[in-house]
Amino acid sequence: MSQAAVAEHALGIEPAESPLTPESWGKLGMWVFLAADAMSFGGLLAGYGMLRYGDPTWPQPSTILGISLTALMTFLLICSSVSMVEALAAIRRGNQDRLQLFLFLTVAGGLTFLSLQAYEWTNLMVHEGQSISTNNFGATFFILTGFHGCHVFGGVVYLSAVLGRSSRGVAGALAAALTAVLGTLCVVLFTSRTVAAAAHPTLAYALIPILLATVAAAVVYGVARALRAPGREVYDAHNNNEVEIAALYWHFVDLIWILVFTFVYLV
Amino acid sequence: MAVHTPEELDKEERRYLVIWFWLAVLTLFELGVANLHYAKAGVVAVLVILALTKAAMVALYYMHLVAEKRTLTWIAVTPLVLCVWLLFMLAPDLGSARREWTHKTPTAGAPAHEAHHD
Q: Does the interface predicted TM-score (ipTM) exceed 0.95?
């Protein structure tokens, strides 16, 4: 490495752009990862489409699945995408408080999405008799939505780590990520048990997971804020590449759900 | 790293809200189209176009692909091309799979879980 490159590296400045790559190698890496991940989802969606077209007895999804609830989940993810871009815009202005607020809202959106999915799955299993082994519909539905749900969970932990890191570096990232994992587990388990125990679940039960998810997100936010060390901010107006890369992942999760919602629930 | 002026950020934030509005409107429109009782193929075509439009809006404006280098656009488009290719490769099997099902299940309206217990 040349002396100039070493000096740039020490200052946290990335090397000048090459004509074939974007300004950040991290961003390029995330895009390559997302492209590979998109092919996984593409394969699953193609398999779903082929099985469905080849089977004239395939049930109409709207007769089994709750379209209103999933439309709400779609709207929720769209809103969380907006809060994510607002978080990025905030740190580009150097506003730490707004960065943390909008990251918190995005994590809360992801957790609420997961708890609504737990509600939907439990309802399908307990009251509709569906499972991954019932038929091709059940197998493809649970694999596709489960694979996406895993991505949302990963996104919640990732964004919680960014939220924690924005407060106090690596220690904050680890504390907030661990809190997010535990919070998600509590929300999903409690939601499933509540719905499974209910004789006649209604949309009112969906309020329980929303409340729980908000509490879990608030705990993550509280941990991140409690760890905050003023004057030691990791991100600022000129150094926010990590936030942008995390945002790419979250928007990808939203983009994939837009396709899953249409192909699995509406078509 | 790109430096953003306050004016650019104001403009971007307004654009984010406009895109959010259109994503919400298109989602509502999708719900309406899904409940139409016209020809299934037409409804499916409209739904697919709407979904791809929404996905493109997220990729272009929220993931900033519209302002990125062309290299990233090629990386993003590659999986789409490969998935369409995969669909075309699987297409020849579709006709035979559907014929096989039709022979297996004389009553096409039977529930799927019953049809599998053969």
A: no
A198 CB contacts (<8 Å, ≥6 apart)?
Answer: A205
d(CA A40, CA B91): 19
Contacts for A81 with CB less than 8 Å, ≥ 6 apart: A250, A251, A254, B20, B58, B62
Q: Which residues of A171-197 are buried (b: 16+ CB within 10 A; e: fewer)?
A: ebbebbbbbbeebbebbbeebbebbee
Distance from CA of B104 to the nearest CA of A (A): 10
- Cα–Cα dist A184/A112, whole Å: 9
The CB-side HSE value for B98 (13 A sphere, CA atoms) comes to: 12
Q: Does A132 touch chain B (CB under 8 A)?
A: no
Task: Report pTM.
Answer: 0.84
Over the stretch B25-74, which tens digit does the pLDDT of each residue have?
999 999 999 888 777 788 899 999 999 999 999 999 999 998 888 888 88
- pLDDT tens, A131-181? 888 888 888 999 999 999 999 999 998 998 888 888 767 777 777 777 878
Which of B20, B59, B87 is opposite residue A46, by nearest beta carbon? B87
